Automatic annotation (TrEMBL):
Keywords: DNA-binding, Transcription, Transcription regulation. Residues 20-82 form the HTH iclR-type domain. This is IclR family transcriptional regulator. It comes from Variovorax humicola. The keyword DNA-binding applies. Gene3D superfamilies: 3.30.450.40, Winged helix-like DNA-binding domain superfamily/Winged helix DNA-binding domain (1.10.10.10). Residues 83-267 form the IclR-ED domain. The keyword DNA-binding applies. InterPro entries: GAF-like_dom_sf, HTH_MetabolicPath_Reg, Tscrpt_reg_IclR_C, Tscrpt_reg_IclR_N, WH-like_DNA-bd_sf, WH_DNA-bd_sf.
Length: 273
């Protein structure tokens, strides 16, 4: 009776939040396979899911019947099955990088108080597709639809660092003609490559008081499931109140935002082994 009374007194919101513990427990095995990114023996997989092998095995048998996992005949190792692969592919086809990034970019702008721009690689180069204004007046020429200089902006150098070199070489030739010499400042080839190496080293691109005096920025990459850059997230603000250190708060915030959106798009760093 006490159990019935407790169940009856449970609020509607608590009922909605209550899940099925056995599904949640078994799901840890699927999450462990995805995190490791490789076929695994039962004992190792169970350990990764923080579960005893004897408890993990029945879950894996049921998952195999559904096609969520498969067991290799030669090794006995477990791996994601055809159903899991199909579900993943359907999800990836439906993903829109800008749509996925928008709430994260908005949160980044709100938490830092600075301006945040989303950019994609368009027909003419890095193009701003969404802009969240800072909580204070920030005087820049950046608007939705603005094409950014490859060499002269943090956003441009971000794409240049991660896109194929041949594509970037061709775009650099068009940079000054397309944007004009006042925006596309010529850069020595050696200096430009040094900038790109710096971007890859730190995982973000940086501009200090350039191309707009008094405005600094960090641009972070967003990668998809195949490891290709599909989006740039640029955090920018007044230089006097903007931490421009490579390991400072603004750099970390921009990079963390890019990592979270990348995860949403299926990108992950696979563990060795």
């Amino acid at each position: 009776m006490a159990e019935l009374e407790n169940e009856g007194s449970e609020s509607g919101s608590e009922k909605e939040r209550r899940g099925i513990q056995s599904i949640e427990a078994g799901g840890q095995l699927l999450l462990a396979l995805g995190a490791q990114g490789r076929p695994m023996p039962l004992r190792e997989l169970a350990k990764a899911a923080d579960m005893a092998p004897g408890k993990a095995h029945p879950y894996l048998v049921s998952f195999a019947k559904l096609g969520l996992v498969t067991q290799e005949a030669s090794t006995g190792y477990y791996w994601l099955g055809p159903t899991a692969m199909q579900l993943g592919l359907v999800t990836l086809r439906m993903l829109n990088p800008v749509r996925e990034a928008t709430p994260f970019a908005e949160q980044l702008a709100r938490e830092t108080g600075h301006s945040v721009a989303l950019s994609v690689w368009g027909n003419q180069g890095p193009t701003i597709v969404y802009l969240f204004d800072a909580i204070y007046p920030l005087h820049t020429n950046i608007r939705t639809g603005t094409v950014m200089s490859l060499a002269g902006t943090a956003t441009g150098r971000l794409f240049a660092a991660y896109l194929p070199a041949k594509l970037i070489e061709e775009s650099l030739l068009e940079d000054e003609r397309r944007l004009g010499p006042d925006i596309a400042t010529p850069t020595e080839r050696g200096d430009f490559q040094g900038m790109l190496n710096e971007v890859r080293k730190h995982g973000v691109s940086r501009s200090i008081n350039n191309p707009t005096p008094g405005v600094s920025s960090f641009a972070a990459p967003v990668f998809d499931y195949s490891g290709n850059i599909v989006l740039g997230i640029t955090l920018m603000g007044r230089s006097r109140s903007f931490d421009t250190d490579w390991t400072g708060l603004q750099a970390k915030a921009a990079k963390a935002c890019g990592v979270e959106v990348s995860k949403r798009l299926g990108h992950q760093t696979l563990r060795a082994g």
